[in-house]
Write a structure and sequence with these properties.
Number of domains of chain A: 3
Largest sheet of chain A: 2 strands, antiparallel
Oligomer: heterodimer
Strand content of chain B: under 5%
Order of helices and strands of chain A: HHHEEHHHHHHHHHHHHHHHHHHHHHH
Structural class of chain A: mainly alpha
Largest sheet of chain B: none
Order of helices and strands of chain B: HHH
Strand content of chain A: under 5%
Distance between the termini of chain A: 107 Å
Number of helices of chain A: 25
Number of helices of chain B: 3
CATH class of chain B: Mainly Alpha
Chain lengths: 636, 99
């Protein structure tokens, strides 16, 4: 168990590196980015060592608690900080550090023209450390520390170019919407304290079966709310599209591969809680299904390459959420899809970054076209990601997504039919919008100004990116091609996760498996064909056509921002204004009124003291006469 | 002769005294008004003493005279000293305690 006790180094290395980079400031500008890469790579190596160590143990022994220190001690209450090293957390640690390292390397080149590259790497390292705290924590309290840490890193990185007001606003939006989810997390933790008197996984999961249904449902629903905020699920998904304001490596690492999947991790990790609350489970599945379609529809209409990928991320996490909401049969597949998605989506984001790099930071796909001729490596790696996400066998996405669709068809009553159909249709739409993105960018006629054609905009000279950028893309593409298939051989991945998710008997879907698989592939091919016909075989207009009602709605995220603004923001503003007014008018008014009233009376009474003896004498005389009159009148 | 006449006289004297205090600016005249009011009160006391046929009223009148004598001493001293320092015997000028 030696190396397992060193798990804290996983967190410490990037954290120290981040602190060094931030504290040294400009002094580390020249080598800071390499320190960041090194820290991330060291963590990745350590994660691999821990994986090897775990693999050497029997399946049942693969769970280790590493106590670090007593965090909060107050009377009878002790909250200790410890790490939980088990197949689930190590899987995440590997994904975070491995993909993270590749993206660090990519960012060295991508950010090479930015004066603040060192600060960028400091934030990236901070993110890696916080994300590792999140997945390695052995209690909800420590998990929450990481949870907030990644939120902070995400905020800092979305607003990395905060000299642009729009980007700063996007960062703030992400932060504020995440707070809504965090409130769910806090309420869940409070409910746990009230119910179990502790928030560490061991105690909570151990006592879960003995707790009341109401408390479990509350905890479950609040955890789902937390997951919605972090994972950009309906109805808290509006921030993810705007989060694309951050530099592309950030979008790849945080807003595609790792942080946004934290909600799925939370639900899978809290499996023993959800086991006792079918309501919360069903809510999670419904949210997943809704977001899946929502993201897919939005993705069909956007012209900004990064926003399409963001909508797609949202939709794919919807798949994971749906799987996680299905209960133990879906947990392993949710994580499986999360891992494969981490590879192919990060790869595609890096590809999009490479395209932007070659096209002078242009993101509008209507200004791309025929780039496959100029960026061979980007084109081929992106193609691997594209085939993976739409689920063409034998690419990674096929293995994981197909399993989720199959699981969605398992169950009784209306649920398998609804969830299964949604998952199936979602796969078709995914194929359409991802193919649209792919064809619009890399195929068809060039719609950018190459100096000789009539295309609008500044002259572009697309070129392939340097090796520092293409190599990580190639590695991720290899993952997108092979990872799913390799991990599926003999159900390796599912049985690897069994110590956490529990062993699940095979369930028969309501439709035969070959039928589901065949209809998925048929739908995917139809979607891809439609996209090819419209965006590769025929000319793509440079200015977006008016489109149908649905297209126009999808372009503005199905009016989600308008709804949020109308339902939450405006009434919220009115509420605060009313409160401020009440405060100034009523509360302050009463206090100030008392003061000024006393002052006014004092002023009036002061006039009586005019210093004239004769007026005092008159007052006295009148007073005496008045007193006499009163006395005499009362006698009569 | 009815005792009511004494009371009416006393009322008249008191009114004259109080009007003098309220209307005259000269401190000495105002002071005289005060004395007049005191003596009006004395007259009332003596009248009621006579009415009841005992000495209480007269005794209290003596007390008042003693107090008035003492008061005159202090009052005149104050007036003289104000006159010396401020060169005026007008009571409207003695308003330094105001504000």
């Amino acid at each position: 168990m030696d190396t397992l006790n060193l798990a804290w180094l996983l967190i410490a290395i990037p954290l120290v590196s981040s602190a060094v980079l931030l504290l040294l400031g400009r002094a580390s500008d020249s080598w800071g980015h390499w320190l960041g890469v090194l820290a991330s790579a060291a963590a990745a190596v350590l994660a691999i060592v821990i994986l090897v160590q775990l693999l050497g143990l029997a399946a049942d022994d693969r769970v280790a608690n590493v106590h670090l220190f007593d965090w909060i001690t107050a009377g009878d209450l002790t909250v200790s900080a410890g790490l939980l090293v088990d197949p689930l957390s190590v899987t995440f640690a590997l994904l975070i550090t491995f993909v993270g390292t590749l993206i660090h390397i990519y960012a060295v080149a991508y950010m090479s023209h930015d004066a603040d590259r060192r600060r960028f790497f400091a934030y990236l390292n901070l993110f890696i450390a916080a994300m590792l705290v999140l997945v390695l924590a052995d209690s909800y309290a420590l998990l929450f520390l990481g949870w907030e840490g990644v939120g902070l890193a995400s905020y800092l990185l979305i607003g990395f170019w905060n000299q642009n007001t729009e980007y700063a606003v996007a960062a703030k939006k992400a932060f504020v919407m995440n707070r809504v989810g965090d409130m769910g997390m806090l309420v869940a933790m409070m409910a746990m304290f009230a119910t179990f008197g502790a928030v560490d996984f061991e105690t909570v999961f151990g006592a879960a079966s003995g707790a009341g249904q109401g408390a479990m449902t509350l905890i479950g629903l609040m955890l789902v709310l937390a997951a919605c905020g972090k994972s950009a699920q309906f109805p808290l998904q509006a921030w993810l599209g705007d989060a694309m304001a951050g530099p592309t490596p950030v979008s790849a690492l945080i807003h595609a591969a790792t942080m946004v999947t934290a909600g799925v991790y939370l639900i899978v990790r809290s499996g023993p809680i959800f086991e006792h609350t079918p309501t919360a489970q069903l809510v999670a599945a419904i949210i997943g299904a809704v977001t899946l379609l929502f993201g897919a529809i939005v993705g069909c209409a956007k012209d900004d390459i990064k926003k399409v990928l963001a909508a797609s991320t949202m939709s794919q996490i919807g798949y994971m959420m749906l799987a996680a909401g299905l209960g133990p049969i879906g947990y392993a597949f949710a994580i499986f899809h999360l891992i494969t998605h981490g590879f192919f989506k990060a790869g595609m984001f890096l590809g999009a970054g490479s395209v932007m790099h070659g096209m002078g930071d242009e993101v509008n796909m209507r200004g791309f076209g025929n780039l496959s001729k100029y960026m061979k490596v980007t084109w081929i790696t992106f193609m691997a990601g594209w085939l993976a996400i739409i689920g063409i066998p034998p690419f990674s996405g096929f293995w994981s997504k197909d399993k989720i669709i199959e699981s969605a068809f398992v169950g009784e009553g209306w649920q398998p039919w609804v969830f299964g159909t949604v998952a199936l249709v979602g796969a078709g739409i995914t194929a359409f919008y991802m193919s649209r993105l792919f064809f619009m960018t890399f195929h068809g006629k060039a719609r950018w100004n190459d100096g000789s054609n009539e295309a609008p905009g500044p002259e572009r000279h697309p070129h392939e990116s340097p090796a520092l950028m293409t190599v990580p893309m190639i590695v991720l593409a290899v993952g997108a091609i092979a990872l799913g298939g390799v991990l599926s051989i003999g159900d390796t991945f599912v049985s690897w996760l069994e110590p956490v998710t529990g062993h699940v008997e095979h369930h028969e879907p309501v439709l035969p498996v070959p039928v589901i698989m065949a209809s998925t592939i048929v739908l995917v091919l139809i979607g891809a064909f439609l996209a090819w016909r419209q965006y590769a075989a025929s000319a793509v207009p440079v200015t977006p056509p008016a489109g149908t009602v649905l297209t126009r709605a999808a372009r503005v995220d199905l009016y989600q921002d308008a709804v949020n603004e109308g339902v939450f923001m405006r009434p919220g503003q009115h509420l605060t204004r009313t409160l401020v007014y009440t405060d100034t008018a009523v509360v302050d008014g009463a206090v100030n009124g008392l003061g000024s009233g006393t002052l006014g009376w004092g002023e009036r009474l002061r006039r009586l003291q005019n210093g004239f003896v004769r007026s005092y004498a008159a007052v006295m005389l009148i007073g005496v006469i008045g007193a006499l009159v009163v006395v005499l009148a009362s006698r009569v | 002769m009815s005792l009511v006449n004494y009371l009416v006289l006393s009322g008249i004297l008191f009114s004259i005294g109080s009007i003098a205090v309220l209307t005259r600016r000269n401190a000495i005249v105002a002071f005289m008004g005060v004395e007049l009011m005191l003596n009006a009160a004395n007259l009332t006391l003596v009248t009621f003493g006579r009415l009841h046929g005992d000495l209480h009223g007269q005794v209290i009148a003596f007390f008042v005279m003693v107090v008035a004598a003492a008061e005159v001493v202090i009052g005149l001293a104050i007036i003289v000293s104000i006159f010396r320092t401020r060169g005026s015997a007008s009571i409207d000028d003695a308003n330094l305690l105001k504000s």
